[in-house]
Amino acid sequence: MSESFRSMLRSLPDFPAALPVFDPASAPLDPAELFRSWLDEALTAGVPQPHSFSLATVGAEGMPSSRMLILKNLDAEGWHFATSRLSRKGRELTEHPLAAMNFFWSALGRQVRVVGPVTELSTDASAADWAERPGADGSENPTWQLYALRPVEVEFWQADPGRRHVRHRYLIPAAD
Ligand SMILES: Cc1cc2nc3c(=O)[nH]c(=O)nc-3n(C[C@H](O)[C@H](O)[C@H](O)COP(=O)(O)O)c2cc1C
Which residues form the Pyridoxamine 5'-phosphate oxidase N-terminal domain (predicted)? Predict the structure, then answer.
């Protein structure tokens, strides 16, 4: 049973044979600009929910936890996401305001990893995000919180059919 499961896993397809070629030498200086163009290309390639990502947080005694979220914006404050402050991730972010994001676009063989400190955005911005969410019914949610992750590290990874995978890493000094 476990042997057949193992061989079934081994037989699953890898990345598609045709993948984009990424040359880090031509990458822009701003990782947000490169992210926007990769997100555009994921949209064009028909990747479902290309704005979803896994968010890892740190809990008690350093225990990590992760879950999928939706990216809400990118601006000078950072990469925005929203959730309830009372959720597990909300409580973990209050305790340890640091997180790691991971975007994965299988059809393009691409991954983007983003790491940094997280800050809470304003009550007004959080209320506006709650009001704009799909299925909003006019109710308020005082626990809803918009956060911004300010990257100190962003890594772009491009799979290569010949397994010469390409990584391009930006290190950004933390803001004071
Ligand atoms: C694709 C996808 C997008 C999601 N987007 C959000 C989101 O933007 N905000 C949110 O609070 N939960 C979102 N969820 C649910 C979270 O993954 C998670 O189950 C929930 O927030 C509770 O997480 P926690 O108990 O770790 O705090 C999404 C789930 C999926 C699968």
Answer: 39-157
Q: How far apart are CA 20 and CA 17, in angstroms?
A: 10
Tokens, residue 151: 């990257």
Question: Could you report the per-residue pLDDT of 122-166, keeping only the tens digit for each?
Answer: 999 999 999 999 888 999 999 999 999 999 999 999 999 888 999
First to last CA, the chain: 55
Instruction: Please indicate whether residue 70, judged by its CB atom, sits closer than 6 Å to ligand 1.
Output: yes
Q: Is 76 exposed, middle or buried (0-12, 13-18, 19+ CB in 10 A)?
A: exposed
Record the pTM: 0.96
In sign, the C-alpha dihedral spanning 72, 74, 76, 79 is: positive
Taking CA atoms only, the protein residue closest to ligand 1 atom 4 is 69
Q: Is residue 86 one of the residues assigned to a domain?
A: yes
Nearest CA to ligand 1 atom 12: 69
Give 87-120 pLDDT, tens digit per residue. Answer: 999 999 999 999 999 999 999 999 999 999 999 9
Q: Which atom of ligand 1 is nearest to the CA of 72?
A: 8
Q: Is residue 10 part of a domain?
A: no
**Is residue 68 a part of any domain in this protein?**
yes
